[in-house]
TrEMBL record:
It catalyses: tetracosanoate + ATP + CoA = tetracosanoyl-CoA + AMP + diphosphate; a long-chain fatty acid + ATP + CoA = a long-chain fatty acyl-CoA + AMP + diphosphate; a very long-chain fatty acid + ATP + CoA = a very long-chain fatty acyl-CoA + AMP + diphosphate. It is found in: Cell membrane. NCBIfam families: PRK08279.1. SUPFAM superfamilies: Acetyl-CoA synthetase-like. It comes from Denticeps clupeoides (denticle herring). Keywords: Cell membrane, Fatty acid metabolism, Ligase, Lipid metabolism, Lipid transport, Membrane, Nucleotide-binding, Transmembrane, Transmembrane helix, Transport. It comes from the Eukaryota. Pfam families: AMP-binding, AMP-binding_C. This is long-chain-fatty-acid--CoA ligase. It is an enzyme of class 6 (ligase). The keyword Zinc-finger does not apply.
Length: 634
């Protein structure tokens, strides 16, 4: 009897085990990414709980407090490695204390003020930011490529009262210094000596200051809603827009590395500019949150990239698609796979470059993501699906008190009219799964849209109303995406008056204003065109000439180079008799974009940007074929 009972129990266990195995097999077939989805969503839940704890602390627990905690627990650990020198967490703390004291005394700063940083990648950029945090001030991160009116606009639009300038950018600031002084701005240059009236030296004042800790009382009013930094994004006005990143949003970006498994033992390599959210928030702040070491590079160098990684035992790298393509285009070496890099995090990586990179440099985990400093929605490709920018998962879809966490949709976009298509009821039309559409994200308390600084007009333009029901409001990301049957998200293109080139957003209206300032150009229409083997779109301008005028390629080059950063300069200029416009006086770019710089189609005079010759030269079939085949790089 006993043996019979045991046999029945064993048989029952076997049946149950077989049932479990069948269930697992079924789930694996039906939901092949279920375990990874669950793991990722659990990690997001832990992040949400951490942020909830930070919010409840009095005063609010900021990233600065996280940094100061690292200073207390591991003071001698390197935070920054830069050009052969190491700076520990404690070193950075003391340097930022000196900067805070110098700025408070000589810049007359108080809690809530904004300071604009016009600096390149260097340790002082980090110390400046930490010092401003200790004073309860916000930082405006200016792109060091901007000049003239754009520089003045970016300084003024965030309400900054102090501008801090790198010594190598002195000439750019001197050009606008009279206007800055008229606005009663305090302008400091990072040097010990300066003969320019109105420019105050700062390095000498920092060296004289004490490195003793700064009283927390100076930042006692900082909350999760306080502006932390202003990060600039190109817009249709021709001038960059200042996206307000609150302390809460800084925390959100900080956890990207944590979500993807980074630890305090990792070393991250940041060759991206710190004025961008990727390098500043995800890279630098993510490293501080994890207690990591940052190897900071002044600028990306394709020849030094892997040598730096090997020298400093780098385990995580940051990228944009263009940098990865540059690395893949270098001559192959036996040392290509001799490194400790295990993860790369970034965006803009094309499928063919992705495969080439992993084949050549080893199976480095690629974490592609989709996000923007002015957006309220993001995706992460935590699965590693080649070519995808992220994955739509049930954390974003499931209901919390009957409200979706991050409501979003792809809607039909009318490229001819340059706006979302609408049905007979005036509502937007959702796109079926697998088809390309404009990504919009509902503006909610969970996923808010923080307005652009002092720019209510552009803030409102970023919103789409009456999307799926009358009265609702969604954020217009300006991006065309596609979501496949397995819920992987693919970036398709950008819309509107901006395009990306060399990792930067380019505003077409600003370029048009520069072009029409030339004596011989009447009207200009700027757009981006595809160039084989490159990321993003190269700038192209269709222009009309004033009566009796001729196009001067040398003068055009000199003028454009004086007013625009290299990435914003048109690579092609097309001379037309007239520019087509719509009934509402909007330029028609669809046909122009489609024709690109194809000499087999275009009969108009066409000119090519030739940096070496400092002029725009007539486009020839030899040049055209060289660009198409990749023999000539632009």
């Amino acid at each position: 009897m006993a043996s019979s009972s045991l046999a029945l129990i064993f048989q029952g266990l076997c049946t149950a085990l077989a049932g479990v195995v069948l269930v697992v097999i079924f789930l694996n077939i039906q939901f092949p990414y279920l375990l990874q989805d669950c793991k990722f969503c659990w990690t997001l839940f832990k992040v949400k709980q951490k942020r909830a704890v930070f919010r409840k602390r009095k005063p609010f627990y900021t990233v600065l407090d996280c940094f100061l905690n690292r200073v207390r627990t591991r003071p001698d650990k390197p935070l920054l490695v830069f050009e052969g020198r190491e700076y520990s967490y404690q070193d950075c703390d003391k340097e930022s204390n000196k900067i805070a004291r110098a700025l408070r005394k000589h810049g007359n700063l108080t809690q809530g003020d904004t300071v604009a940083l016009f600096l390149g990648n260097e340790p002082r950029f980090v110390w400046m930011w930490l010092g401003l945090c200790k004073l309860g001030c916000a930082a405006s991160l200016l792109n060091y490529n901007i000049r003239a009116k754009s520089l003045l606009h970016c300084f003024s639009c965030c309400g900054a009262k102090v501008l801090i300038v790198a010594e190598e950018l002195k000439e750019a600031v001197e050009e606008v210094l009279p206007t800055l002084l008229e606005q009663k701005a305090s302008v400091f240059i990072l040097s010990k000596e300066c003969n320019t009236a109105g420019l105050q030296t700062l390095v000498d004042k920092i060296e004289e200051a004490s490195n003793e800790p700064i009283s927390p009382e100076l930042r006692s009013n900082v909350t999760m809603g306080s502006p932390a930094v202003y990060i600039y994004t190109s817009g249709t006005t021709g001038f960059p827009k200042a996206a307000v990143m609150t302390q809460e949003r800084i925390w959100a970006g900080t956890f990207y590395l944590f979500i993807n498994g980074a630890s305090s033992e990792d070393v991250i390599y940041i060759p991206l500019p710190l004025y961008h959210a990727a390098g500043f928030v995800i890279g630098l702040h993510g490293a501080i949150q994890r207690g990591m070491t940052v190897v900071l590079r002044r600028k990306f160098s394709v020849s030094q990239f892997w040598d730096d990684c090997r020298k400093h035992n780098v385990t995580i790298i940051q990228y944009i698609g263009e940098t990865m393509r540059y690395l893949c285009n270098t001559p192959k070496r036996e040392s290509d796979k001799m490194h400790k890099v295990r993860m790369a995090i970034g965006n803009g990586l094309r499928e063919e470059v992705w495969r080439s990179f992993q084949s050549r440099f080893g199976h480095i985990r690629i974490v592609e993501f989709y996000a923007a400093s002015d957006s309220n929605i993001g995706f992460i490709n935590y699965i590693g699906k080649i070519g995808a920018v992220g994955r739509e998962n049930f954390y974003q879809k499931v209901s919390s008190t009957f409200i979706l966490f991050f409501p979003h949709a792809l809607i039909q976009f009318d490229a001819e009219r340059g706006e979302p298509a609408r049905d007979s009821n005036g509502l937007c039309i959702p796109m079926p799964q697998g088809e390309t559409g404009l990504l919009v994200a509902k503006i909610t308390t969970i996923a808010p849209f923080i307005e652009y600084a002092r720019n209510p007009e552009q803030t409102e333009k970023k919103k789409i109303r009456d999307v799926f029901q009358k009265g609702d409001a969604y954020l217009n990301t300006g991006d065309l995406l596609r979501i496949d049957k397995d819920n992987f998200v693919y970036f398709q293109d950008r819309i509107g008056d901006t395009f990306r080139w060399k990792g930067e957003n380019v505003a077409t209206t600003e370029i048009e204003d520069v072009l029409t300032a030339l004596d011989f150009i009447k009207d200009a229409c700027v757009y981006g065109v595809k160039v084989p083997g490159t990321e993003g779109r190269a700038g192209m301008a269709a222009v009309t000439l004033k009566s009796g005028s001729e196009f001067d390629g040398t003068e055009a080059f000199s003028h454009i180079a004086s007013y625009l950063p290299s990435y914003a300069r048109p690579q092609f200029i097309r001379i037309q008799n007239s520019l087509e416009i719509t009934g509402t006086f909007k330029q028609v770019k669809v046909k122009l974009v489609g024709e690109g710089f194809n000499l087999t189609i275009i009969k108009d005079p066409l000119y090519l940007h030739m940096d070496k010759d400092k002029c725009y030269k007539p486009m020839t079939m030899n040049y055209y074929n060289s660009i198409i085949t990749g023999k000539m790089h632009i």
